[in-house]
Amino acid sequence: MQMAHTDLQRFQLQGKLGEGADSEAFAAIDTVNGLPVVVKRPHPTLIVRGQHNTVERRIASAVALRERLGEALPHVARLIAYTQTSESEDYFCDAIGEKYSVVVEERALGVPLVGSATDGIKRHPIGAPQNLFAIHPVIPHQKRGRFSVVRDLLDVAEICDRDGMLLLDMRPQNIYFDPLNARITVIDICGVTKARPAVGRKPPLDLHDFYLELFKWYMPHADPPSEPEGYRQPVGMETIPLFTQNLDGMIRRHTERSDEDCGAVELDILRKIRARDYPSIRAFRSDFEAYLSLLERRYEELSDSRAIRQAWQAALEELKDDYWRKFLFNFGCLSAYTQPA
């Protein structure tokens, strides 16, 4: 719902949750019902420089999409309220003195698949959830099994595609994972845009760019680590802006994979993505599910390795560290991944 700037006082701020290049997020409590929420605004650095108009357009587009689709949009944090552009220095207790919009969303359960870069500099294991639950699900969830992250993301992309929109920028910092139910919550859909054909030297922008993101951030590039330290760092954070360069690098890495069955199917999919050969998301899903079935069998075999299984379980224990306590995350939910030694 749209609300007046003055009504923001309903949401009592509790402290900053994090920040990205475009936005800043705060934990808050809805004083009407006592539920935890997240309050977001464009990043103050952009606001004071008058450079937040692009962010404002993305926010408006994301708000329109959520209002249009409502409950039909799965795995996306529910929109609670938003304001039009106005000054909010009294609410945030700062002296920015510029107009900007504010968005209030439900607070996601679980942990971000990758924590903030600032926390990484402080040597926190910010990449552990990405590696444990998306890329290397050595031990499956008791009910949803392995690779639920990519399946959930594909569902979101399909709903957006039906609405004529393209889901992009699904980097792991924008995805929260609840280990109890093995389900994701997308906390930022401001990268949603319209597909476009190639124009001049500009390449096309379509679902193949989303498929690239799935493989770059959420699929294994090698076998699971045999030491817990191998799970700590995030994967795919390097900046490679060109579509073809990204795919060429992936194809080279996957050509070196030791598992022949998985490797052949994987390479076929990557080459089709590079050539933009998939006529529909349904065609991609058919190939992708066949690939996931092969990966399931591969990871079932790998889980028999004592070293690999113990490394995974030791990395899972790191989610009990104090660092993760700032999120809505119950350590007891990790029992959904217990497996006899």
List the helices and strands and how they pair.
Blueprint: E1 11-19, E2 23-30, E3 36-42, H1 44-48, H2 53-69, E4 79-82, E5 86-87, H3 89-92, E6 99-100, E7 103-106, E8 111-112, H4 117-121, H5 128-135, H6 148-162, E9 175-178, E10 183-186, H7 207-218, H8 243-255, H9 260-274, H10 281-302, H11 306-317
Antiparallel strand pairs: 1-2, 2-3, 3-7, 4-7, 5-6, 8-9, 9-10
Top keywords for this entry?
38% helix; 11 helices; 13% strand; 5-stranded antiparallel sheet; globular; 3-stranded antiparallel sheet; alpha+beta; 341 residues; single chain
CA radius of gyration: 21 Å
Low-pLDDT stretches are none
Span from first to last CA? 50 Å
Helix content: 25-40%
Which word captures the global form?
globular
Main beta-sheet strand count, sense and barrel state: 5 strands, antiparallel
Mean pLDDT: 90
Order of helices and strands: EEEHHEEHEEEHHHEEHHHHH
Number of helices: 11
Assign the structural class, choosing from mainly alpha, mainly beta, alpha/beta, alpha+beta, or little secondary structure: alpha+beta
What percent of residues are in strands?
5-15%
Major sheet strand order: 1-2-3-7-4
Structure summary, number of beta strands: 10
Explain what this protein looks like in three dimensions:
The protein has 341 residues and is of the alpha+beta class. Helices cover 38% and strands 13% of the residues. The mean pLDDT is 90. Strand 1 (11-19) and strand 2 form a beta hairpin.
